Structures are given as C-alpha cells and as structure tokens.
UniProtKB/TrEMBL annotation:
Keyword Metal-binding: yes
Native organism: Denitrobaculum tricleocarpae
Mandelate racemase/muconate lactonizing enzyme C-terminal domain segment(s): 147-243
Family to which the UniProt record says this protein belongs: Belongs to the mandelate racemase/muconate lactonizing enzyme family.
UniProt KW keywords: Isomerase, Metal-binding
Name this protein carries in UniProt: Muconate cycloisomerase
Family annotation (Pfam families): MR_MLE_C (PF13378), MR_MLE_N (PF02746)
GO molecular function: magnesium ion binding; racemase and epimerase activity
GO annotation (BP), single: amino acid catabolic process
Length: 375
C-alpha cells in the first residue's frame, strides 16, 4: 500500500480536573482532591482522529494552564495542515516552536500515533517497531498520610493480584518511613517493595538513612536527593547494595547520557511526560540499555489515556523491564475518562491489540470535567 496523503484539520484542547479518592503526599507536593490533565484530539481531512494526554504536575514539570496554552497557541500552528504520517517532522517543528513543555509534546505525539494507528489499522506498539511483551507487571503507590488507609488499599490490591508497591518516603520522619516498612514486611513478606524519596533527602546524613531502608530488601530506592545533585546520586549508587533508580535526575536522552557516563544510578525511570513523547522515552531506555541499566515505566498523575501511551511504549521496549505504575486510572481516580476501563487485571496491565491506542475517550465525561476547552 502506498502512502495516502492526509492532513490534520482540527485540534481540540481540554483542560480537565479529575477528582481523586484520597490525598497523596509526595514530599515535593501534596495532591488533595483532584488532578489536572490536558487532553487533545486531532482530526484529519479524511475523518481519522487521535487522542493524547498531557499530565503536568506543577511541582515537577509544569502547570496545566501553561500546557494548554503551549498546545493551543504555539503547537497548533505547526500541527494544522501537516500530514499525520510525518510524526518525527511534526515533533521537530513543535520542539522548534516552543522550548520545554514536555507534557504538551507527549500529548501531541500520542495523538499523532493514535491517529496513524487508527488510519493503518495497527496498534501504536506496532508503529513503534513491534511488540516485545503482552503484559506489564503493575505497581501501586502508597503515599497516603493516613497509613492505615494505605494498608487497606494494599489489602484490596493484593486480593486483586498486585504484588508490587512503591512507598513514598522522606516526607514525614525517618522513623515513620521505617515503621511503615516494618508493617509492610510483616504483613506481606513476599511483597516487591520499592521506595521513592521524590528528592526528599538532604545528602547530609542520607546514607545512614538509606542503609536503614536496605534492611527491608527493597528492590530499588528512587531519587533520594534532588535531581541536580549528581555527586550525591553517584556516591549513593556506589555505596549501597540496593539499586538506585533515577527519576528527577533524568528527563531527556541527554540526561540519560550523563547518568550513564557518571554512573549516577543503577536504573532509570522513563516517563513520556519527562521526555516529551514515546520515541524519546525509547531513546532514554536505549541509552540505559547501552550501559546495562534496566528502565522502569514511571508516570505522573495521569488518567487512563496517558497510561495507554506509556503501555504501548513499554510493550515495544524490551529494556523497560522493571514494570510500570499505571495504577491511577483504576485505583486512584474517582472516574477515568476512557469509555472502557483501563486494561489491568491480576496485577498486570494488558497491552491493547486494537488500532491506535486501542481505547476511546468518553467525550461526555471529558466535557463534564473540563474547566476550559479550546478549538
Ligand atoms: Mg519518582
């Protein structure tokens, strides 16, 4: 089949606020009652459409208001009239049109891939080179200031087949972190526990705390110190038996290169919201692989739509082998915006087989939660 030219004729941008079930304290920021996402829908002259999500977090990558403006004002002109098959070219134009705004670019590339997959009758993972895995082990995060509520959540998750959790540490006292780890280990000796400090420790005295955490045989310790502090990351990576996972230290492929070269970590968390899209996420994973480091499928405060983009990327990327944390659509949001439930069961995310992302967005739900719509 030769290439049939098409052109993008419409772009709609929604800023939606999605209610959540409980508070989440991550040290770098508290999420109380809702999360903000920005959704775009592209439509072509031949009537093909595609959706993508930006999941900014004000304390991490940026605000939803800025993301909506980046898409509406700066990215829209490079998208309208473009052939949706020219994904690398459109992304290069978007990168020239506006600096930063990686979440907006992740939404754009997701929508382009969704469009393209629907037009060709292929899942997004097939467009990314093909499928390596059909399911991805799923981790849920425990970050409720009320730990009894988190234990109830874990009981429910364990009954549902979840065997992997991430405990958010470094927010309250070190004693509270150790107490929670003791309770978790006692209740679930076989649980695969990961801890994430979200940059919460000062390097002074941190090594002693991290050695206390090591006793609980956690799988990895994520981002103990601020992302910029490469010296401290390298020192803890060398000093600890437990692998160190870099999150805030590595956004881009260039950051991944520095992490590999300076041995700043033992593994890297790949998030499309940090890299600015799925293909750049795969580049980060490839750079990690070149140094023998595995990668992990991280996320932000996302709906099922962004989870789907990450799922297709991980499906096509062998080196993202440490599982994923796409739990929010099913375990955290009051209601997701997908028409059918995000596909996870028995502790695993099932890689979709339908064209594009394989799922449709419920436009009525989106309109219901939208604070602002631009077209
Ligand atoms: Mg993290």
């Amino acid at each position: 089949m030769t290439h049939q030219k098409d052109s993008i004729e419409r772009m709609t941008v929604w800023h939606a606020a999605l209610p959540v079930r409980s508070a989440r304290d991550h040290g770098s920021g508290l999420v109380a009652d809702k999360v903000d996402v920005v959704v775009i829908r592209l439509e072509t002259a031949s009537g093909v459409f595609g959706f993508g999500e930006a999941s900014p977090w004000a304390v991490f990558t940026g605000t939803a208001e800025a993301t909506a403006a980046a898409l509406d004002r700066y990215i829209r002109p490079v998208v309208l009239g473009a052939d949706p098959a020219d994904i690398p070219l459109i992304m290069a134009d978007a990168n020239r049109a506006i600096a930063g705004h990686t979440e907006a670019k992740a939404a754009l590339e997701t929508a382009l891939l969704d469009c393209r997959g629907r037009a060709m009758g292929l899942p997004v993972w097939a467009l990314l080179g093909g499928r390596y895995r059909k399911e991805i082990p799923l981790s849920i995060s425990l970050a409720n200031p009320d730990f009894d509520a988190d234990m109830d959540l874990l009981d429910e998750a364990w009954a549902g087949g979840i065997r992997m959790i991430k405990l958010k540490t470094g927010v309250q006292s070190h004693a509270f972190d150790i107490e929670r780890l003791e309770r978790l280990r006692k209740a679930y000796p076989e649980l695969n526990i990961r801890v994430d400090y979200n940059q919460g420790l000062q390097p002074f005295g941190a090594l002693r705390r991290l050695k206390d955490v090591e006793q609980f045989k956690v799988t990895f310790i994520e981002q103990p110190v601020p992302g910029w502090n490469h010296e401290a990351m390298a020192r803890f990576t060398a000093a600890l038996e437990t692998p160190i996972l870099a999150d805030e230290t590595v956004f881009s492929p260039g950051d991944a290169h520095k992490a590999v070269k300076g041995r700043l970590c033992d593994a890297i968390s790949v998030k499309i919201m940090k890299t600015g899209g799925l293909r750049r996420g795969m580049e980060v994973a490839a750079i990690a692989e070149s140094a023998g480091m595995p990668a992990y499928g991280g996320d932000m405060f996302e709906s099922g739509l962004a989870h789907l983009a990450g799922t297709h990327m991980i499906a096509a990327t062998p080196n993202i082998s440490l599982g994923c944390e796409f739990y929010q659509a099913r375990w955290y949001l009051e209601e997701d915006i997908l028409r059918e439930a995000f596909p996870c069961d028995n502790g695993k995310v099932a890689v979709p087989e339908g064209p594009g992302l394989g799922f449709d967005v419920d436009l009525e739900k989106l309109a219901h939660y939208a604070a602002d719509t631009r077209q």
